[in-house]
Amino acid sequence: MMTKWILGAGVAALAFSPLASAEPSYAEVQQIIKRDFKAKGQAKMDRLDQDIVQQVCTQAHDKPPADVAKALEADQFKMFPFPSGSLIGNWQNGGKLAWSGKGMQWNEDPKKGAGGGCYNCHEIAPERTSFGTIGPSLRAFGKKRGSGADMQKYVYGKIYNAKAYTLCSNMPRFGATGTLTEQQIKDLVAYVLDPSSPNNK
Amino acid sequence: MRASGISALFIAAFALAIAPGAAQAAKATKYQKMVVEGSPAELFELVGEDLWQKKQGPKNASLEKCDLGKGPGVVKGAYAALPRYFKDTNRVDDAETRLLYCMETLQGRSRKEALKRPFGNANKPSEMEYLTAYVAGQSRGYKVAPGMSHPQEKRAYELGKALFDTRTGLYDFSCATCHGEAGKRIRASELPVLSDPAVARPVMATWPAYRVSNSQMKTMQWRINNCYRQMRTPQPIWGSEVVNAMHTYMMVTGKGAIYAGPGTKR
User: Fold this and answer.
1) Could you tell me which residues come within 8 angstroms of residue A130 by beta carbon, excluding any fewer than 6 positions away?
2) Does the domain made of B151-265 have the CATH classification 1.10.760.10?
3) B204: Cβ–Cβ under 8 A, 6 or more apart, which residues?
4) What is the DSSP-derived secondary structure letter of residue B147?
5) Is the CATH number 1.20.1540.10 carried by domain B39-137?
6) Does the CB of A54 have a partner CB in chain B at under 8 Å?
7) Cis peptide leading into B83, omega within 30 of 0?
8) B217, B262 in Cβ contact below 8 A?
């Protein structure tokens, strides 16, 4: 129902936008992409199939109408397999995963798994002085916000599928895409929240 | 005489390329010195010029009659005016896809053979990297002015612009995810907002570029390919409409800059 509505809105938006003749339509761009890429290593062609999130964020230039975003975020949230019990894993392992930017690229061995690449975009613990700034600082996150069940669920959820919270977030869906396992995400939650993690010292 | 000069340069650069990373500090100092003393990009231009003049392929011909958009054999200012539409290929070509066309037509080489190894490595740069460096160097001082008037040139620009904002790949990234907001970094690397002409100008004026961190000359075909690798998509096909449209979009955004490449980057 929701999906149909969104697609309809997308088509309507295209029909009414003042297209210059040189401007390719959304559908044409998608077609050209599928023609001009080739599968390599673990990067198969299905990675180019846009789901509803990618489609809406592309068409809305990352600024979807609030009601559309809200409805689709809820849809993303429904797909969550939240594990029961504590979501705090091993922060030592989480620290390694947060630093590693490897994984899922066509030149990499899929058997070696992936890191979270968190430091690519976020400041976290002071043990790492090289960090990106695309995402907000997570420095002392647990110290500031606590590490109770709700906060554990929030951080786990953001890592599992950031699009369930902010539809056009810059952050990948690490759990939903199968990039990180449940245990790895728990380890990252620990790195961010655990009082004994260097992030909260 | 000139040939031996080139050999000496080549050996010097090769020695640098394979220098063992014994001490990180010593390496950094060496790099700094190298950058200060003059970019090794010049070496690539010299080797590229030799390859431009070298007779090769089934037709035993050089590339000296190659038409890079300014007429057969005119290299001066050609790179700064690319990508552009070519009637003979009926598409928008950049320097690299145009060089490939000349290898096929003038030298009689097969596309497969000529494209066997478009991206080199530190120990063995590719023919395309040398040639692109040479062609680019012949545009120093020329204004960046890619084709913008032919319908296919306009189309390439618009396609590139649309691709810039297209979310794709396993990680949902578009180009704008990283290159859309000023002042952002991935780790220590600053991210140029390539949709902003003021930012795109100095960037596009210095590609291709010699990357000191990995001792390699890198071209725009490689740069775009490598961005998509990090975006976790499948591989964009070398010289495809997608890659050339991205190149066109960025070069048009950077138009008006005085071309100063090949550049040297960390």
Assistant:
1) A119, B187, B188
2) yes
3) B144, B250, B251, B253, B254, B257
4) -
5) no
6) yes
7) yes
8) yes
Q: Write the residue in A36, A45, A50 that is nearest to B240 by C-beta.
A: A36
With an 8 Å Cβ cutoff, is A25 touching chain B? no
CA distance A69 to B160: 26
Chain B residues in contact with A116 (beta carbon < 8 A):
none
pTM across the whole model:
0.88
Instruction: For B12-46, give the DSSP string.
Output: HHHHHHT---S-HHHHHHHHHHHHHH--THHHHHH
Q: Which of B165, B186, B187 sits opposite A58 (nearest CB)?
A: B165
Query: What string of pLDDT tens digits covers the 266 residues of chain B?
Result: 344 444 444 444 444 444 444 555 555 555 555 554 567 899 999 999 999 999 999 999 999 999 999 999 999 999 999 999 999 999 999 999 999 999 999 999 999 999 999 999 999 999 999 999 999 999 999 999 999 999 999 999 999 999 999 999 999 999 999 999 999 999 999 999 999 999 999 999 999 999 988 899 999 999 999 999 999 999 999 999 999 999 999 999 999 999 999 999 88
- State yes or no: is B227 an active-site residue: yes
CATH of A91-200, picked from 3.30.70.20, 1.10.760.10, 3.40.50.2300, 3.90.1210.10, is: 1.10.760.10
| Distance (Å, whole) CA B146 – CA B193 | 19
CA–CA min distance A31, chain B (Å):
11
What are the residue ranges spanned by the domains of chain A? 2-65, 91-200
| Residue ranges of domains in chain B | 39-137, 151-265
Identify the closest residue of chain A to B161 by CA–CA distance.
A23
